[in-house]
Amino acid sequence: MPIQDLKEQISRLPEQPGVYLYYNGKGETLYVGKARSLRDRTRSYLGAYGMSPRHDALLDEATRLEVIVTDSVVEALALENNLIKQRAPRYNILLRDDKNYPYLQLTTTEAFPRVLVARSVERDGNMYAGPFLPAKFARRTMSLTHKVFGIRSCNEVITGTRHRACLEYDIKRCLAPCVAAICSEERYAVAVADTRLFLEGRNQELAEQLRVRMLDASEGERFEEAAQLRDAMRTVETLLERQQKMASAELGDRDAFGVKVGARGAVVHVFIVRGGRVIERVELMWDAAESGESEADVIEAAIQQFYSDQDPPPEIHVPVAPPEAQVLEEWLSQHAERKVRIVVPQRGTKKGMMELAHRNAALGYRQRFDTNATANYDALESLQAALRLPKLPRRIDCFDISTIQGSETVASMVVCEEGRMRPSEYRKFKIKPQDLKTSSPQAHTFLDDFAAMEQVVRRRYSKVLESGGPFPDLIVIDGGKGQLNAAYAALETVGLSNLVAIGLAKKEELVFTRDSIEPLALDTHGNALRLLQRIRDEAHRFAITFHRQSRRKRDLQSELDVVPGIGLRRRKTLLTAFGSLSGVRRATREELARVVGVKVADAVIAHFAANP
Question: Which of 64, 7, 6 is nearest to 30 (CA)?
């Protein structure tokens, strides 16, 4: 057993708190743990063989041990948490969140920064704030940056040479840096600095700065500017008061954890309670067959990982006390800069809430690890591996265009989440000929398929960007390289070129990607291709159905429907009186006037004169 080869090294370790790391022969980190005494904790592994299949596999594979000494167990816990996040060791309990909670991105790499909703934090030089729970808080906060500080929301390249400001300036939601005479680069930079303080939560400092500038503007008799600064200061002070009133257990701010551990892994449900109300439910999952971990171990890992990016409430309710509850409390209290308690409720409504979280965790475990769910998850994993995606494609959007010789061109979008189709998320689009960026000279007769794809993708993700989500992990385009390039052109236009899209050609079932000239041929009997085919076929079915409905509606229409003043009843009257549309066209003004009146008769005559 390789662990026995480390016996001599373990005997020389200090009896001090710290973090220990096990490595395999390839230098990969297998496990990261914390200890009050590094020597005693690592020595316990020498006799741990047979505790569980997971422990046995770790002991068989570990060939090297490293330790990092810290001043306290709390420091060791914080370091352990950071190392687990960075290295994702195979044998640690790694819980993942089913939802992708949004961040706000202040695009400081741009000359005139914007505030955007982001799915993750990137090392790209921009400033990020979050995550926001519930997700709607991200969109509300983004809206506040427009309303209070005048940060722009457009995708324009700002040069300051625009002739006039847009509607956003008129309704006081943008400073209009696009017009240099209205907003200089220096003034916009001040608004960006204020926004940064706001997103970082430094509202006290921001309120003081706004007050000073308001008084200065007032003394300089710049009363409109002073009024704007006053309104901004009042908004920030109101938010500051709400923050100070929060964070007390008496107001009912707490998180309730429920956990279900089984042979296939574990599911943790967290109910986030603020002001006595449940405002969000978070599900964390861990896939590990025959792990042998206890509920207490899973709860401890869940608390560490859940609060690594967000402040904890005053109380955290758990079904069983974690092994290092006191150390966790100290770490959480330091993180939140106030007292945080981990409590095991014994009775009353608090226990009832925790038991409800526990029942939801049990339900989530059954749904996640039943046969169908497992097959769906395996297909997603196969697809991730085949396409070399950076993350599991939990949400897939698929687009298809349907047309007959450019007539009644429509598009569909279907959504697949966790390998299951979500009809409530389906969308259908009528292609607008006037908005087509077409390469075809006969654009209004035979609509360009590439241009139609560009339009529908642009329309869809402009709306998604405004709403702050949901963003897909993968976009599937029904078509080849041309349609895929059109989709990426649309994503570039709306500023979402970081999204991953692929094209799926019908006949050969080849997959086209942006980064490769040659198409990719997936295993024809594999789960990955079958999943893509199922999604693509559903998009095709939805588009065909909508196209048939559009054609049927067109066929039932009459040219008279576009004449002002003619509705269903007058159309029927005219066709009955003159026999057909040709009879109406041949009728004189006097004949028409006797049937529908002089005003409508003139409208009919004018219509046919303009459309001979």
Answer: 64
